[in-house]
Design brief:
BRCT_dom_sf, globular, alpha/beta, BRCT_dom, Rossmann fold, XRCC1 protein, 79 residues, 4-stranded parallel sheet
């Protein structure tokens, strides 16, 4: 049920994050939509991150995707 949006990343890292998340079963959106659930961002204190939180989204760092990949499953989004 993860639908993610990436913010603040440039290629090749952007493509690597997207590919890792999609390989784990997430869906990707280039911009925040009604069905988006997670904003993976380089900087958590931006207007885009604040809007995602206001709309019920979860803001996570890229390490969350790498940890999900390492464990082969969705891990909690906590600190």
């Amino acid at each position: 049920g993860v639908v993610l949006v990436l913010s603040g990343f440039q290629n090749p890292l952007r493509a690597q994050l997207r590919a890792a998340a999609v390989a784990l079963g997430a869906r990707y959106r280039p911009d925040w939509t009604q069905d988006s659930t997670h904003l993976v961002c380089a900087f958590a204190r931006t207007p885009k991150a604040a809007r995602a939180r206001q709309r019920g989204g979860v803001v996570v760092a890229p390490g969350w995707i790498w940890e999900c990949q390492r464990q082969g499953r969705r891990v909690p989004c906590g600190p």
